[in-house]
């Protein structure tokens, strides 16, 4: 069984497994590090897999005296880098985590070797998750029901009920004050004018049935980031890494191998080299 070390860094709970070059996974709005559960075994044999529960999400602390914004979350990732003595890593972001990953990459380009954006956008979320509607739903239904209603619309048609129920339970952990600040910050975020400044190899992944961040948003990302490739996964909604894990893992592995070959040619070492 894969050994997973769990630690708290500031207000962030971090789950670490495997060894090698760091592969850092960041989840989305109200979701958790457990949404990357299908990637643990697949990548821990070659990489140091680091899955983050952002502050206020999952099992992480949720103090009321701090910010729960995209910028604050990017700073939390930097704190994780420093605490784990990570100089550079491959950064993978889902949905809101993709926005955080873009912000981090633009602010700290020297710390990102390659970028993976899953179900992400350059600006806010898709029309189905309008910020005003989310805030009204939190007011009318409570944050748990509001978050679970979004989850019900997030999966593709082939997703089993057990998978949806898993996701419903995970998002129920995020309190209202965290969700409110995070969704407002996400709605205000806009990287469209800066996509050309992302200078690392980038993989953009989206499910064909994603209505939370529709495929057209991923097209904008792929067209705006100079060194990017777009992969569209069939029979998946907003969470292709959970809905079609074998396909997703193959796509990610292929991208990482291509990056490994590129960096091996240019520097004599690969992305999967062991860290010292």
Write a brief caption for the model.
The protein is of the alpha/beta class and 276 residues long. The protein is built from ten helices and eight strands.
Describe this structure in words.
It is a single chain. With 276 residues, the chain is of the alpha/beta class. Helix content is 42%, strand content 18%. Strand 1 (5-9) and strand 2 form a beta hairpin. Helix 4 crosses helix 5 (143-154) and helix 5 runs antiparallel to helix 6 (161-171). It is globular. The chain starts with a strand and ends in a 9-residue tail after the last helix.
Task: Break the fold down into its secondary structure elements and pairings.
Blueprint: E1 5-9, E2 12-17, E3 21-26, H1 40-44, E4 47-53, H2 70-83, E5 89-94, H3 96-107, E6 112-118, H4 131-141, H5 143-154, H6 161-171, H7 176-188, E7 202-207, H8 215-224, E8 228-233, H9 240-243, H10 245-267
Parallel strand pairs: 3-4, 3-5, 5-6, 6-7, 7-8
Antiparallel strand pairs: 1-2, 2-4
Helix pairs in contact: 2-3, 4-5, 4-7, 5-6
Order of helices and strands: EEEHEHEHEHHHHEHEHH
Distance between the termini: 24 Å
Count of runs of 4 or more consecutive helical residues: 10
Q: What oligomeric state do these chains adopt?
A: single chain
Molecular shape: globular
Average pLDDT over all residues:
93
Instruction: Describe the strand arrangement of the main beta sheet, using strand numbers.
Output: 1-2-4-3-5-6-7-8
Portion in helices = 40-55%
Low-confidence stretches: 272-276
Evaluate the radius of gyration.
17 Å
Fraction of residues in β-strands: 15-25%
Structural class: alpha/beta
Would you report the number of β strands? 8
């Amino acid at each position: 069984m894969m050994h997973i070390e769990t630690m708290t860094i500031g207000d962030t709970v971090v789950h670490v497994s495997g060894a090698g070059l760091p592969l850092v996974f960041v989840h989305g709005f109200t979701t958790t590090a457990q949404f990357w559960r299908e990637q643990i075994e697949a990548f821990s044999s070659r990489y140091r897999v680091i899955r983050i529960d952002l502050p206020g999400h999952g099992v992480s602390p949720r103090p009321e005296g701090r910010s729960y914004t995209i910028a604050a979350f990017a700073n939390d990732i930097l704190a994780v880098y420093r605490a784990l003595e990570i100089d550079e890593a491959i950064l993978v972001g889902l949905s809101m985590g993709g926005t955080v990953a873009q912000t981090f990459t633009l602010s700290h380009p020297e710390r990102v070797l390659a970028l993976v954006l899953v179900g992400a956008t350059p600006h806010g979320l898709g029309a189905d998750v309008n910020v005003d509607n989310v805030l009204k739903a939190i007011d009318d239904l409570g944050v748990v029901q509001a978050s679970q209603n979004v989850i019900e619309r997030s999966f593709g048609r082939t997703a089993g009920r057990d998978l949806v129920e898993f996701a419903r339970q995970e998002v129920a952990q995020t309190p209202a004050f965290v969700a409110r600040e995070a969704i407002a910050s996400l709605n205000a975020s806009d990287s469209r004018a800066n996509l050309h400044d992302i200078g690392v190899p980038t993989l953009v992944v989206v499910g064909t049935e994603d209505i939370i961040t529709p495929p057209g948003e991923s097209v904008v990302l792929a067209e705006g980031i100079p060194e990017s490739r777009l992969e569209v996964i069939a029979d998946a909604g907003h969470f292709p890494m959970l809905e079609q894990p074998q396909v997703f893992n193959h796509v990610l592995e292929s991208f990482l191998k291509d990056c490994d070959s590129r960096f091996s040619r240019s520097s004599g070492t690969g992305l999967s080299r062991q860290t010292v």
